[in-house]
Amino acid sequence: MLIGVWVVIFGQIELYKEAKESYRKGEFELARKKVERFLIKYSEGKVKDEALYLAGTLREKPEEAIRYYREIIENYPKSKFKGKALYRVGQYFYVLKRYDLAYYYYHELKKIDHPLKKEAEEWLKMLTNFWFVQLGSFKEYNNAEKIRKKNKKYSPIIVNINGYWKVWIGPFSSYTTVEEFLTSNNLKGFPTQLKR
Q1: pLDDT tens digits, residue range 59-115?
Q2: Domains in the chain, ordered, with CATH?
Q3: pTM
Q4: Which residue among 44, 75, 164, 190 has its CA within the 20 to 30 Å range from the CA of 19?
């Protein structure tokens, strides 16, 4: 019985080591395939959190990477990769202009003891210093989507804050630049900041 368990654990570690070695050599597509095979074959593997982190790192699309990092955050709360995963998810949501979610993940990282905590605090300062034009705030997502589509030339985003779907344009560096934007584009809206 113990020999069988050892063989399974050894097999897990070997397959994962192969994925890491391919990554180290710059063979990213091969590494991605190997880590995917590992995650499918050993759904409860000894190094699954580390494999999830590597899988996220190997993803080109932010939405796919976020899925792997969130699995670490949600299913491996004591993992040494949790802090890095929180940081990466915050970065990806920032790139996707989901500032509300970026704020959330940086705030979660700030709560734990991790070397990236100071960087998360800097991101939080920056995010709370951004200004936006708020075009509307709605209980129903569909109403927010109508306003977003109506103003699509300004690339508005929809964020959910405290149960309300808000339609924002931005970010802007100051209150004044928001006012100037509203005036020059003859838009009805008001300046707001990301606050929790």
Answers
A1: 989 999 999 999 999 999 999 999 999 999 999 999 888 888 999 999 999 999 999
A2: 2-127 (1.25.40.10), 130-193 (3.30.70.1070)
A3: 0.75
A4: 75
